[in-house]
Specification:
There is one protein chain. The protein is mostly beta strands. Helices cover 9% and strands 38% of the residues. It has 5 helices and 43 strands. The strands form 11 sheets. It has a 6-stranded antiparallel beta sheet with strand order 15-16-17-18-19-20. Strands 2, 3, 4, 5 and 6 form a 5-stranded antiparallel beta sheet that branches. Strands 7-8-9-10 form a 4-stranded antiparallel beta sheet, with no helix packed on it.
């Protein structure tokens, strides 16, 4: 007698056509160990440009191989005329000054190259040997309306601030770097993100805020290269991160250089808030600014945060201020803020102790458990948060972890379960969720669509690389693109949107609680399928890879990683990178806190 475990049958999602063919439709064939990087896909000049990386043959937990060079490919929207453009480039992007050109960063050399999407011209080095020091986040510090900024290090604590202006001819010209400041301060241990080094340097579309070795906070105007002094005797400062406020935020937080409490690594001093619109400084307290990760992270939402000492220390406090009145309240120093809502309502948890999520009130100081079990904050809408029941990354779990997904209202009403299981990388679409599940070795997963009303799952495809899924076009065009690593099926694949359900046709409610009709409208389906021949009603494609009537529409904006950061995908990617950098910095302290807690139990 044979015994076998009962398994649930796999439900397949019904898919619309793509490019006049059934879904899934393979756009480009690749080797079984090659996958597309979703965050590095750019659409320009009726071409789609991809970065293709290899899987690590030895490390099953590595996202990509660190030894094999990535390649850059382009093709038409349906895979027409594929061309390899370059190799050795992991990062491609566009900037607003040159919206129809694709740029690439060669991390090995620091060269920024201009790529011809058609492949007719060889890659051109427009910005040679751009310094990557100190953070190693790519070529240079960040893009502005006037060119690329970088730091040329003198030593471990100072370097020259450089501007690499846009050459007049991007396809033939070469940028000549200019020195904006002979010396600016930084620290190798500083955190940061695109366009910033926490505590020392913040870059924006048309200006830079920097701290000099003489402890002077200065502003550099990129238009005329002029330098003005904002404040002397400054130990450190903080501004709104540039990916949250590309034009520059209203407020600054700065620490006076006069030491009020000496500490070898975190000397304390008076902390001031400056209003750059109305002028004037307000004393917030005395502490070391370095104890707080980006005090103005939520500044655009009207909140300033300031740690009064080491957040790991017993009795440590975090002081929060509401702008502009500066009403304040204190909470435990290990508070981790996730979201700020109107009326002084905050959602957050602990950096180190546990993974519960609380609702907090400012300036009242109330703090109450929002959800009865440990979970991770993954999103919000106007009056609720989304919580995923998984251990916090990155000690107990990684991004492959999955668990129940909940929508939890702030008013204390009953939480709604949106999915029996989900991951951190789910995309909303018409009351449904699209994303990876069952991710295992080499980050291969099932791509599924989940109905948030019934919590039913339907599979779109399998052997899909977790980080290749690009759902940025699903709401406008009904298309999800991804890579499959599965023998002969391997390659970059596009899939049409799952067909609307009966509930969608009646006008379902999205996970945010608002009524929505299906996004798989007739125009979207026609765009997916191609043009229908009036005589035969068979799908056909025009020479411009789309319907002639659609060719008259404005071209979709290219993805821009330039100074404006308008593309939501890039903004969310930047926020994710900054948050992951913070997570990495906190892993050691979280682990130390846990070991200390367990030793006391």
């Amino acid at each position: 007698m044979l015994l076998a475990c009962r398994t649930e049958p796999v439900v397949r999602a019904e898919l619309e056509e793509v490019c006049g063919a059934p879904s899934p439709f393979r756009v480009l064939p690749f080797a079984g160990d090659e996958v597309v990087r979703a965050s590095e896909t750019v659409r320009v000049q009726d071409r789609v440009v991809y970065v293709v990386s290899r899987l690590d043959p030895f490390d099953v937990d590595a996202v990509y191989s660190s030894d094999a060079a990535s390649t850059v490919w382009s093709a038409g929207p349906c895979g027409e005329a594929p061309q390899q453009l370059a190799s050795g480039i992991d990062d491609i992007f566009t900037v607003d000054v040159w919206p129809d050109l694709v740029l690439g960063c060669e991390k090995a050399t620091g060269n920024v190259v201009v790529l011809d999407p058609t492949g007719a011209a060889e890659p051109h080095v427009a910005f040679p040997a751009v310094p990557q020091f100190p953070l190693g986040i790519g070529c240079g510090l960040g893009w502005t309306d006037f060119g690329l900024l970088s730091l040329d290090a003198h030593d471990e604590e100072t370097g020259a601030l450089m501007l690499h202006p846009f050459p007049a001819d991007p396809r033939a010209g070469v940028s000549s770097p200019e020195v904006l400041l002979d010396a600016v301060r930084f620290a190798p241990s500083s955190g940061g993100g695109p366009g910033m080094i926490s505590g020392y340097l913040y870059t924006f579309r048309d200006h830079v805020l920097a701290l000099t070795p003489e402890e002077t906070l200065v502003r550099v105007e990129l238009a005329d290269r002029s330098v003005s002094t904002l404040q002397t005797d400054v130990a450190a400062f903080s501004a709104t991160p540039p990916f949250l406020a590309p034009e520059g935020g209203r407020y600054l937080v700065w620490q006076d250089a006069a030491v009020t409490k000496d500490d070898p690594s975190h000397p304390e001093g008076a902390i001031f808030l400056r209003d750059q619109v109305e002028g004037g400084d307000v004393l917030l307290g005395e502490t070391a600014l370095r104890w707080t990760f980006e005090p103005l992270w939520h500044g655009e939402s009207g909140l300033v945060q300031l740690n009064l000492g080491n957040p790991l220390a017993l009795g440590a406090r975090l002081r929060l201020f509401l702008l502009p009145e500066l009403d304040s309240v204190e909470f435990a120093g290990d508070l981790r803020l996730n979201a700020v809502f109107e009326g002084g309502r905050l959602v957050g948890g602990s950096l180190f102790r546990d993974d519960f999520i609380d609702l907090l009130e400012v300036p009242g100081g109330e703090r109450a458990r929002l959800f009865p079990r440990e979970a991770e904050y993954v999103g919000r809408d106007a009056d609720a948060v989304r919580l995923l029941e998984v251990p916090q990354c990155c000690i107990d779990s990684d991004f492959r972890a999955e668990g129940p997904l909940w929508r939890v209202p702030l008013d204390g009403s009953v939480a709604t379960q949106l999915a029996e299981r989900a991951t951190r990388f789910m995309t909303d679409w018409d009351g449904r969720l699209i994303g990876p599940l069952d991710a295992g070795a080499r980050w291969l997963s099932s791509l599924v669509v989940i109905d948030t009303e019934t919590r039913a799952e339907a599979r779109i495809d399998e052997s899909v690389h977790f980080h290749s899924i690009d759902a940025s076009r699903v709401n406008e065009e009904g298309i999800v693109s991804y890579s499959v690593a599965d023998g002969e099926r391997s390659g970059s694949t596009w899939s049409g949107c799952p067909r609307p359900s009966a509930a969608a046709n009646r006008g379902r409610r999205s996970p945010s609680g608002t009524s929505r009709s299906t996004s798989c409208a007739t125009a979207t389906v026609d765009r997916c399928r191609g043009c229908a021949d009036s005589a035969t009603d068979r799908p056909r494609r025009s020479e411009n890879y789309g319907c002639p009537e659609l060719d008259r529409e404005p071209r979709p904006r290219s993805v821009s990683r330039g100074p404006r950061w308008r593309d939501l995908r890039d903004m969310s990617s930047s926020l994710r990178e900054a948050r992951q950098r913070l997570e990495a910095e906190l892993i050691t302290t979280r682990l130390a806190a846990r070991l200390r807690r367990e030793s006391h139990e």
